[in-house]
Structures are given as structure tokens and as C-alpha cells.
Amino acid sequence: MKIILRESVSNLGNAGDVVEVRPGYGRNFLIPKKKAVLATVGNIRRIEHEKRVALAHQAKLKAGATELAKRLAAVEITIARRVGEQDKLFGSVTAIDIAEKLEPMKLGIERRQIHLEEPIKTLGTFEIPVRLHHDVTQVIKVNVVAQE
């Protein structure tokens, strides 16, 4: 039985692939769960159209992310925190703190897009990656200074 996968299925294929499966697997599992459709001429045309629309949408999103990355390249933020002995911070600087500093700039950056390996716990200048799209990542500079 030939089917077209609507989503990726492990050990079988990716979305949009035309694959051959056993009739029971296709009829009893893949098609009822809407993971696949029968490979008819009309369905193949429809899937190809959906692929083109999705590719155009992804290209538009990537172009927007690239434009935002250019604007982010010049961004440098400063966060003031109380400091204890040996320049250790009371608390830490997290992605939430960085997102709050970016919010007044109206860039539309969410905290989930800011990738900190670990919270910042010392003074200094740090380069923090911001993932705008799965292909576009921009680094911003974050200065952590002592609060006076």
C-alpha cells in the first residue's frame, strides 16, 4: 500500500514522503491517526502544494529573523546587580532578566529565545546567543555591573 506521510514517523520517513507500507499498518494505524493519506494523484498534488506554501512561509520567517538579527547586532545591554565579596552576585542574571531589558526596545524577543548555558553569577561582559529562527542566531552583549 502506498501512502503519503503527513508528519515524520520514526523508522519510516519524513513528512511528505511517499512510502510503501503493509496494508494493515496503513489502514489501521497511520491513516486513522492522520499521520498519512493514501497516495492518490489528487493527494500527491495537494501535499506538493502544502510543501510549497510551507517553504514560502519558512522563507518569509527566515527573512524576518535575518532582519531582526541585523538590528540585534548593535544591541548591548547593562544589568546592575548587588555584589558581595570577590565580585560574586547576590542571586544571578537569567534569561528572564535579559528579556526584561530587551522589552522596552520593542524587538519581540522572548525569554525562550535567549540561550544561557547557566545563569550569570559574576561581573563582566558576556556574549549571549539569541535564537531567532532555527537557522538564524545572533549574539548580544550583556554587561553585568555592580549596583551602586
UniProtKB/TrEMBL annotation:
GO molecular-function terms, A-Z: rRNA binding; structural constituent of ribosome
Keyword check for Transferase: no
UniProt keyword terms in alphabetical order: Ribonucleoprotein, Ribosomal protein, RNA-binding, rRNA-binding
One Gene Ontology cellular component: ribosome
One Pfam family in the UniProt entry: Ribosomal_L9_N
Alphabetical GO biological process terms: translation
Ranges for domain Ribosomal protein L9: 13-40
Keyword set includes Membrane: no
Highest taxon above the source species: Bacteria
Family membership: Belongs to the bacterial ribosomal protein bL9 family.
Function recorded in the entry: Binds to the 23S rRNA.
Name of the protein: Large ribosomal subunit protein bL9
Organism, as annotated: Vulgatibacter incomptus
